[in-house]
Amino acid sequence: MSVPPPDLAAHPDLAAHIDRLIDAALAEDIGPGDVTSGSVIPEGLRFRGVMAAREDMVVAGLPFAAQVFHRVVPEAGVELAVADGDKVAAGTILARLEGPARGMLTAERTALNLLQHLSGIATLTRTYVDAMAGTGATLLDTRKTIPGLRLAAKYATRMGGARNHRMGLYDGVLIKDNHIAVCGSVAEAARRAKQAGTGEVEVECDTLDQVAEAVAAGADIILLDNMAPPVLRQAVALVAGRARTEASGGVNLDTIRAIAETGVDFVSVGRLTQSARAVDIGLDWNAE
């Protein structure tokens, strides 16, 4: 399998984001030079190795890891054995690598860090997607991401099967509790957003009274915040198809199915990007 860049159709800035991320990660790791590889690895020595999953996972960021090796060693040979979005079992070979040993070892940790982190997000996301399968609701990610990793993290949730919510404050209106407090009411906040002509307006509601107010104000999406399933059902009935509904807050693997079964259109989960652990991926030289 060749090593093209990943599908960037979902966001035009992803390629540039990954380039900046790789630059920053390599700079903090290498600094003025890799003193270990430079002192113990003979110049001109070549190594072959394989990158393999050490646990079951959903892969995300494999082309980005390949870019890391190519950044340090332009002539590196990287053959991808699986694709981003694939669910693989422990022991699966993800990529085969070959190149000058010094450079490949210099790039190893940065490539693994990126791949393990993004695959961890994708793996957790797929677990949530599977838990709500058949309910008709769609899983959304949130802005609860590690600063500086927003687009990469949201790429990973997409590989896990979620749908991206807004990328940032610039591409979607979401009126939250503090906006409402400053404006004075749900209706006034929604009116101002509608008047500004910013596109679809989503309003966060904590109570059924606020839901009714948001619908009457013409909100396009109602975020139902921290509502138990019985209340969510009442909210969905109250909205009656006049707006889309999103459940958020208190969502985990134990609660997501009951929440999704209430009839909401979306369920958003911050922990996809906020709390996912890195999966275990190894890079073993001369393994084949």
Task: Explain how this protein is built.
There is one protein chain. The protein has 288 residues and is α/β, with parallel strands linked by helices. The strands form three sheets. It has a six-stranded parallel β-sheet. β8, α8 and β9 form a beta-alpha-beta unit. The longest helix is centred in the middle third of the chain and has 31 residues. The protein is built from eleven helices and twelve strands. It folds into two domains: 116 residues, Alpha-Beta Complex (Aldehyde Oxidoreductase, domain 3); 144 residues, Aldolase class I (TIM Barrel).
Q: Which key phrases capture this entry?
A:
11 helices, elongated, 2 domains, TIM Barrel, Aldehyde Oxidoreductase, domain 3, 43% helix, 4-stranded antiparallel β-sheet, disordered N terminus, 288 residues, alpha/beta, 6-stranded parallel β-sheet
Low-confidence stretches: 1-9
Number of strands: 12
Report the radius of gyration as a whole number of Å: 22 Å
Q: Mean pLDDT, as a whole number? A: 93
Strand order of the largest sheet: 6-11-10-9-8-7
H-E order = HHEEHEEEHEHEHHEHEHEHEHE
Number of helices: 11
Q: What structural class do the secondary elements suggest?
A: alpha/beta
Domain count, please report it.
2
The CATH superfamily label of the largest domain reads: Aldolase class I
N/C terminus separation: 18 Å
The major β-sheet equals:
6 strands, parallel
Shape: elongated
In what range is the share of β-strand residues? Answer: 15-25%
Can you tell me the CATH architecture of the largest domain?
Alpha-Beta Barrel
Q: Could you say what the CATH topology of the largest domain is called?
A: TIM Barrel
Helix content: 40-55%
